[in-house]
Design goal:
The complex is a heterodimer of chains A (704) and B (315).
Chain A: E1 13-24, E2 27-39, E3 44-48, H1 55-63, E4 70-79, E5 82-83, H2 89-95, E6 100-103, H3 107-110, H4 117-127, H5 133-146, H6 152-155, H7 165-178, E7 183-187, H8 195-212, E8 215-220, H9 223-229, E9 232-237, E10 240-246, H10 247-252, H11 257-264, H12 305-309, E11 315-316, E12 326-327, H13 332-349, H14 355-362, E13 368-381, E14 394-407, E15 411-415, H15 422-429, E16 437-442, E17 445-447, H16 456-461, E18 462-465, H17 469-472, H18 479-490, H19 497-510, H20 527-540, E19 545-549, H21 557-574, E20 577-582, H22 585-591, E21 594-599, E22 602-608, H23 609-612, H24 619-627, H25 668-672, E23 677-679, E24 685-687, H26 692-698
Parallel strand pairs in A: 3-8, 3-9, 6-7, 7-8, 15-20, 15-21, 18-19, 19-20
Antiparallel strand pairs in A: 1-2, 1-4, 4-5, 9-10, 10-12, 11-12, 13-14, 13-16, 16-17, 21-22, 22-24, 23-24
Helix pairs in contact in A: 4-5, 5-7, 7-8, 18-19, 18-20, 19-20, 20-21
Chain B: H1 2-29, H2 34-39, H3 45-54, H4 61-73, H5 88-123, H6 128-142, H7 145-159, H8 175-209, H9 212-219, H10 224-236, H11 238-253, H12 256-261, H13 267-276, H14 280-308, H15 310-313
The chains are: A alpha/beta (704), B mainly alpha (315).
């Protein structure tokens, strides 16, 4: 009964010539220019772009829900025969929640912290016509069942902070679908979640959207999730649409140079780890630059004078076909020809798969640089004011019994979801945390676990690169000062001021930054540049081991590729070892010769890369691999979805820590006995009650 | 929860004990000889000796402290050094009641008024309403209390002839008389803390309004006023509780100027007199009372805060 009947062919939502401005720094600045977007009934439309491209703004603008400093300056948004840009506030409110619904990026922030889940869901139920508060609550409970939340009757009385991100996102999805809207707009709904949770949420979304028959706009920076979920994709760059295409077509034959660059710079795009990642040079134009030219021309390898003078229109590749690929580029035909020629050349001479990996297996690592034995670290949490309501002191076992060896010049990848203890372990190595138990050695010398007891030469030997370079650099120190201080403090020889300056220029040059960066402050740098400075600072001490904690996860994919290449280059020049921490298996696989997989503070599997990335897997590794979204439409892995979510390290399961979620769960033995370490001839170790042959057998179907 | 409150009360007792030591040590440091100050410069040595014996000032410091603190706990607060040697306890307790009355009256005026101002200001951010509220509240906070007090006396008491310009509180007055007496000093004090609370409320409202949950609520199709009322206000007003507790401590002991301007018999003015005349028993008792109320207000604020914020309550 809701809304007017819509004919099959008419789009659900059609935006034409949409331009949006934000009031920033005392003036209106263009954020979106001439955006065209057409979403068909039952279509899942992907919107991809890097941070700052304006994709979230577009999502909000389509609902006319921009924040108060934003405005739509031109264009129309036709939704169910009405132009949203012309509606009054009350008409808008009658569409919101009923016909258009929204799932935001961070569900923890998107729910009111001081109201219960049930209360916040009931509000919507009441708006949608529930007659009493009781009926509204009952409707909410049954909605929670549709998104597979266990024990919904209890969940409604919980507050947001008592639930995990994945649960909260289920709540948001339940609310968004409760009115059976015509369209649902999802703004990076899985970005804040773990890989395995993301996989289950994507499954849920796919199923519910198909069942309800709604259309969806799925906004993401992650090409992988978009490839898995969406039917068609719009690529946004600097506020303009670069390309629109059906999903299979986009990945098989990307047309726009930007799209091609984005796909090529993913770590899984290269085969064999000797090759460097492709990158997109330069940085995106800032808001204030109103370009008459093509917005991508400055970074485009194909750009000509025409591109720098005149903006290309968004045109169909095949004008006779409706709904076909659209591209905003002057040279798309030339690029396509080039692409085809290249592809033809490659297919004749491409090496058999897996060749690149062989070498690493044979390479012998000469000497152990760093080793950690039985590292254990736990935190005691005081309840604070919550003690008022009887909350007790809790012990959080962050890292338990971790053993790891790193050879000179080797990269060891440490992978695991958030809460697995990766960061705690990293901080323990550099003594930012003091280990409770265990020992560490660097070149055979015992390391103190307390920072103040470590000698200068040890501090120099192990450096750390942090996840968020914006937080790791002091905003009041220039680049030159930040790096120079490392030289001054940690150099064995006393250097003069001018020598230090010379060294800083040298190291800036190595990370690809010119001498003019010397006097800049962090706020004058982009995210990628900041991370280069942080890396330069780590290398300034001429370390033998660098602990890099998710150094690329706060960066855009195109910048990630640049940083990964840089890390690889520096390693070969300086013979440094890395402990590279990431939640992203593809990045880890690309960079590391040795991989350790961590779950709830324990290493459940470790070995050389080719062993870890092939069966037998630890069931957790298997699930992580299965959960990783892939941009390769030809690759179809069997779906393994873990039960529930990673338990809190405060209530760590007994026996095998993974038994609560394991897909190969045996029974009592997993619940009660710590699993044995199973070793293969090549040093591959798996901590599991299944022996290696059984694991291979079990994993045969999922990874043939 | 009960055990927590007991623990907090025990902590409060401990902090009172530490304060008592501090207060006692500080009073020992006050310049001048007590006996000479009280009896006059020309007092005979025997008179001085008698005075010191009478008040135990000849005993060792530790013993003096012990006697004072046990006395304080057992409701024997000693006798004042002033003429006639009146007992300290009734004097201080009367003043305490007056101060408490004034403090509560002030909060009663200041809190609702300044919360409304702060909320309106935030909702109309950038408009002339917001600017005028900001300017007025800022200038009132900046003005010394005696200026606002005198202005209020001129306008409300002398011109309109309704309120009493000076206030004497006596038992047995009617409620109307109480109000007449209290309004002017309470209004003056409200202006001082009100401006402050207004600004804090505005800031915390603006912060809450920008949070993503507001957008979520709006996109459910809720009406703006309802979103503000059911979602934003509750979270935005949490910081106000803390400010109120701090203000309460100030209202109990720090209103010296206002009490003087209106001739209001509160604790602040008694404290100043006690310091000037080195009336140590009075000084010590008042200080203890002020610290007590300050800790109590903070305890109540913490409990209230935790009750209203489930993140603290449920951890």
């Amino acid at each position: 009964m809701r809304g007017s009947p819509v004919s099959i062919s008419a789009p659900v939502l059609h935006a034409r010539n949409l331009s949006v401005e934000y009031f920033v720094e005392q003036q209106w600045q263009n954020v979106l220019r001439d955006v065209e977007m057409c979403i068909e009934p039952r279509e899942i439309h992907g919107l991809v772009g890097e941070s700052g491209s304006g994709k979230s703004t577009l999502g909000l603008a389509l609902m006319r829900a921009l924040s108060s400093n934003g405005r739509i300056v031109s264009g129309s948004i036709v939704f169910e025969d009405r132009d949203i840009t012309q509606l009054s506030t009350s008409e808008l409110a009658s569409i919101w929640g009923r016909r258009i619904s929204f799932v935001p990026q961070n569900p923890m922030e998107a729910l009111n912290p001081s109201l219960t889940i049930g209360r916040q869901m009931s509000e919507l139920a009441l708006i949608l016509g529930a007659e009493t508060a009781r009926a509204a609550l009952e409707q909410s409970i049954s909605l929670l069942e549709t998104v597979q939340i266990p024990d919904p009757g209890r969940i409604v009385s919980r507050y947001p902070h008592q639930l995990s991100g994945g649960m909260l996102q289920r709540v948001m999805i339940a609310m968004a679908l409760s009115s059976r809207p015509a369209i649902i707009i999802l703004d990076e709904p899985t970005t804040a979640l773990d890989l395995t949770t993301q996989a289950t949420i994507l499954d849920l979304l796919r199923e519910l959207i198909q069942r309800e028959g709604t259309a969806a706009l799925y906004i993401s920076h992650d090409l992988g999730t978009v490839a898995e979920l969406c039917d068609s994709i719009t690529v946004l760059y600097a506020g303009e649409i670069m390309e629109f295409s059906a999903v299979a077509k986009l990945f098989a034959q990307p047309v726009h140079p930007y799209t091609r660059g984005l796909i090529a710079c993913l770590p899984n795009a290269v085969r064999g780890r000797d090759s460097r990642l492709q990158t997109i040079g330069g940085i995106a134009p800032s808001l204030s630059e109103r370009l008459e030219a093509c917005v991508f021309s400055e970074r485009c390898p194909y750009a000509t004078d025409t591109c720098r003078k005149e903006k290309p229109p968004l045109i169909p590749l095949d004008p006779s076909e409706s709904g076909g690929t659209l591209v905003r580029c002057w040279h798309w035909e030339r690029i396509l020809d080039h692409h085809e020629a290249e592809a033809a050349g490659r297919s004749s001479s491409s090496p058999p798969l897996g060749n690149g990996k062989e070498k690493y297996a044979l390479k012998e690592w000469e000497s152990t640089l760093f080793s950690a034995r039985n590292i254990r670290k736990s935190f005691i949490e005081n309840p604070g004011l919550a003690g008022l309501w009887g909350k007790k002191k809790q012990v959080l076992h962050a890292v338990e019994q971790v053993n790891i060896d790193i050879a000179a010049g080797q990269t060891v990848g440490l992978v695991g979801e958030s809460g697995s203890g990766k960061t705690t372990f990293a901080r323990t190595i550099v003594a930012l945390n003091e280990a409770d138990e265990g020992s560490m050695c660097l070149r055979g010398f015992e390391l103190s676990s307390s920072l103040s007891a470590r000698k200068h030469e040890i501090l120099r030997g192990i450096r750390m690169v942090f996840q968020n370079p914006g937080d790791a650099l002091n905003p009041y120190h220039t680049v030159g000062f930040a790096i120079g201080r490392t030289f001054k403090k940690l150099n064995p020889k006393a250097l003069s001021q001018s020598q230090i300056r010379q060294e800083v220029f040298e190291i800036l040059n190595q990370v690809g930054l010119g001498p003019d960066y010397y006097h800049r402050f962090p706020n004058q740098l982009s995210g990628g540049e900041k991370q280069r400075v942080a890396i330069a600072r780590a290398f300034a001490a001429a370390p033998s081991l660098i602990v890099a904690d998710e150094p690329t996860s706060s960066l855009n994919v195109s910048v990630q590729a640049v940083i990964l290449n840089l890390l690889k280059d520096l390693r070969s020049q300086q013979n440094v070892s890395y402990l590279f921490i990431s939640h992203d298996l593809e990045v880890i696989e690309y960079l590391s010769e040795y991989i350790a997989v961590m779950y709830l503070g324990e290493i459940v599997e470790q070995g050389i890369t080719q062993d870890v990335m092939a069966p037998p897997y630890h069931p957790y590794t298997e699930a992580l691999l299965a959960a990783a979204p892939s941009t390769d439409p030809t690759l179809r892995r069997k779906r393994i979805r873990l039960k529930g979510e990673i338990p809190s390290p405060r209530e760590k399961p007994r026996g095998c820590p993974f038994h609560t979620r394991c897909q190969h769960f045996i029974g009592k033995i997993c619940e009660e006995t710590v699993p044995p370490l199973r070793k293969s001839g090549t040093g591959h170790q798996i901590r599991c009650h299944h022996d290696l042959d059984t694991l291979i057998e079990l994993q045969k179907e999922s990874f043939p | 929860m009960i055990s927590y409150i007991i623990r907090r009360l025990a902590l409060m007792a401990l902090s009172l004990l530490i304060t008592s030591i501090l207060i006692f040590s500080l009073t020992q440091l006050l310049p001048g000889d007590v006996a000479k100050l009280v009896l006059g410069r020309d007092a005979s040595p025997t008179a001085v000796q008698n005075f010191n014996e009478q008040f135990g000032l000849d005993k060792p410091v530790i013993e003096q402290y012990g006697r004072w603190i046990t006395g304080f706990i057992t409701a024997d607060w000693g006798i004042s050094y002033t003429a006639g040697s009146p007992p300290v306890r009734p004097l201080v307790l009367t003043r305490m009641a007056n101060s408490l009355l004034l403090a509560l009256a002030t909060l009663l005026i200041a809190i609702p008024f300044s919360i409304i101002m702060g909320v309106v200001s935030a909702l109309k951010e950038g408009s002339w309403v917001d600017h005028s509220i900001s300017i007025v509240s800022l200038s009132i906070v900046g003005l010394p209390e005696f200026v606002t007090g005198i202005v209020l006396i001129n306008f409300l008491a002398l011109k309109l002839d309704f309120f009493n310009a000076t206030s004497m509180v006596t038992p047995g007055q009617s409620i109307l008389e109480w109000v007449q007496v209290l309004v002017l000093p309470a209004l003056t004090a409200s202006l001082v803390i009100g401006g402050y609370i207004t600004r804090m409320t505005r800031a915390s409202m603006l912060m809450e309004l920008k949070k993503p949950y507001v957008r979520t609520a709006l996109l459910k199709g809720m009406v703006w006023t309802r979103v503000v009322y059911t979602h934003v206000l509750r979270n935005a007003l949490l910081p106000t509780i803390t400010i109120t507790a701090i203000s309460f401590g100030w209202l109990m002991g720090g209103l010296v100027v206002i009490e003087n301007v209106f001739n209001y018999p509160g604790m602040g003015s008694l404290l100043v007199t006690a310091v000037n005349f080195k009336n140590i028993p009075v000084l010590q008792s008042i200080s203890m009372i002020i610290v007590f109320f300050f800790s109590l207000a903070n305890l109540i604020a913490d409990l209230l805060y935790a009750y209203l914020d489930p993140r603290i309550r449920l951890g």
